[in-house]
C-alpha cells in the first residue's frame, strides 16, 4: 500500500515528468532547423513580411514548442509531417528559390511525409540530403523547376510509398534502380523531360498501385514485365513516344481501372487480352497508330465510363452495338463512321462528352442529341446539314460546342445566349447567315468564339460585358460591314476580323482593348491614316492590317510596341519615308524566350474556367490545340503561307511591301537582329542598300524588288548565314554580287533580273566582261595618258617641218638668200638669230 500511495504523491508525479518522461516540446535542433529554413526562404524571396508566406507566420523563436506551429505535425513530440506546399499563393509570378533552401530540412530525420510542391524551386534534386530522411514514406516535389536527373541516392529510401515529381524539368532516364523501391505504391513523374525506355525492373514494384508517366519523352516498347504489377489500378503512359504493339501480357493487370496510353505511336490491333480487365473504368487509346476493326467487346465492360479510340486507323463497322456499359465520355474521332449519327448512342443516358469529329456523318443534328445534357459535343469535319435545334442551347451544362466544317446553315437561334456555361463555341466553316445574335453576349464564361468562314452579315454586333471571360474572337471571312467593332471585353487577347467588308477609319476606342495581343484586320476596306493610338496597345504582338486602304505615313510611335513581333502593313496606300524608329522594335532586335504563347495561355484559361475533369482533358483538349487559332496568312518567301499557330511566337516579320513609300532605307533597320523576314518590295524606295543589313543575323527572307535602288549590293549580305530567299530584281543595281557560303546559294537568276549591270557566279555572268567602276576609271586614265603621249609625238613630227619651212619662207622674203650684199642685211640676220627665230636649229 505504501508503494501504491507513492504513485499518487504530487512530488513524485512532478519529478517523474521532469526527469523521466520525454520532453513535451519538440527537440531544439528541429526547431532550429525549421527557423533556418524560414530564414533562407525569406532571403530568397526578398521579403520580410510574414503576411507573404502562407502559414509560416507562426514559426518564430519565441515559441517554445514548434509542434504547435502550422504546416507540420508531430508524433511523440518530434516532427514527422511537413506540408510546405504553395507557400506563396498570393503572387502570380513566384520568386525563384534554389534547392539550397531545403538543406535545413534534411536534419529532420524523423520525417515521414514531406510536401514541398508548387514553390518554384530551381536546381538539381538534392539526392544526398533526401537520403538522410530514411524514414520517409511520402515525398511530394511536384510543380517546381527541379532539373537534372533523378539522383541514385533517392532509391535508398526503402520505406517510400509515394513519390511525386510531376511538373518539373527532370531529364535523364528512369534507370534500373527504381526496382529497389519495393514498397512504392504511387509513382508520379508526369510532365518532365524523362527519356529512354521503361526499364524491365519496373516489374519489381509489385506493390505499385498508381504509375503515372505522361507527357515525357519516353520511347521504345511497353515492357511485358509491367504485367507483374498485379496491384496496379492506374497506368498512365500517355503523351510519350512509345512504339510497337501492346504486349499481350497487359491483360494480366486484373485490377486495373484506368488505362491511359493516348498520344503515342503504338501500333497493331487492340489485343484481345484487354477483355480480361473486368474492373476497367477508363480506356484511352486516342491518337496512336492502332489498326483494324474496333472490337465490339470493348462495349461489354460493366464498369466502363470513358472510352477514347479516336485519331487512330481504327474502323467501327458494326453500327448495331448494344453496350453493357453506361458511358460518360466517348470519343470515336476519325473512326470512319458514315451515315447518320449512330442511334445506339441515344441509349447512353449518362453521356456528358461526345466526340465524333472527322468522320463522314450526314443528315441533321438529331433532336435526341440536342436534348441531351452534354458538357461537350464535338462533331466538326463531317457532312452534317440543316439548322441548329434551338433546344441545343438550353442546356445548363454545355461547355464546349464544336461543329466546324460541316454544311450547317440558316440563322443562329436566339436561344444561343441561354447556354450560360459555354466556354468554347466553334461554328466556323459552315453556311450560317444573318446577324450574330446579340444574346451571345450573355455567355459570360465564354473564352473562345469562332464564327469564321460563314455568311454572317450585319453592321451591328453584340455588346459584351467588359469583364467577361472572352479571350479569343474570330469573325473572319464573313460579310460583316460598318466600322470595326470594339464592343468586346477589355481582357480580350485575340481579335480576328479579316476578310470582311469593314470600312471607315479605325475607331479611337479600339485602344481600350489594351490587353490585345493579336489583331488581324487584313483584306477589308478600312481607310484613313494608321492612328497613333495603336501605340497605346502595348501588349500587341501581332498587327496585321494588310490589304486595306490606309494612307499617309507610318506612325513613328509604333516603335513603342515592345512586344510586336509581326507587323504587316503591305498592300495599302502608305507614302513618305520609312521612319527610322522602326529599328527600335525590341522584339525584332532581341530573342525572347517565352515559356508560354498566346495559344497556351488561352488553353490554360479554358481549362481553368471550365473546371473540366482529368478524363475530358485527356480525351480531346491536347488534340484541339492545333485548331484553336486560324493560321496567320503572310507572304513568306514570295508565297502566301499560313504560319503554324502553335509556333507563332517563333516568327518575326516586317512587311511594308506594295505601298508608295519613298526615300532611302533607314540604317536602323539593320539592327533588327531577330528579324526572320523583311519585305520592302513594290515601293518607290531609292538610294543604296544599307551596309547595316549585314547585321540581320536571323534573316531568312529578304525582298527589295521593284524599287529604285542603285549602286552595288553591299558585301555585308554575305554575313546573312540564315538567308534562304533573296529578291533584288527590278532595281538599278550594278557590280559584283557578293559571294559567300550562303550568298552563293542565292543563285536564282530571277532574283537579280532587270538591274543595270550585275555580274557574278550566281547569274553565270563573268565580272571580267563587265568591269567594275574602279576598273573603268583606271582604263579611262590609261587611255587619256596614251592619248597625251601620242598627241605630243604627233605634234613634234608635224611641228618641226612646218617650223623649218616657215623660217625659210621668212628668210626668203627678207632677202636673206640674195647674192649681192646690201647695207644692214648682215645686222638683221644677227638680230633674227638673237631673237630665236632659228632657235629650233639648236635643239
Automatic annotation (TrEMBL):
Signal peptide: 1-25
Membrane disposition: Single-pass membrane protein; Single-pass type I membrane protein
Transmembrane segments: 790-819
Location, primary (coarse class): membrane
InterPro entries: Leu-rich_rpt (IPR001611), Leu-rich_rpt_typical-subtyp (IPR003591), LRR_dom_sf (IPR032675), LRR_N_plant-typ (IPR013210)
Keywords, alphabetical: Glycoprotein, Leucine-rich repeat, Membrane, Receptor, Repeat, Signal, Transmembrane, Transmembrane helix
Domain Leucine-rich repeat-containing N-terminal plant-type: 29-74
Localization (cell): Cell membrane; Membrane
Name of the protein this chain belongs to: Leucine-rich repeat-containing N-terminal plant-type domain-containing protein
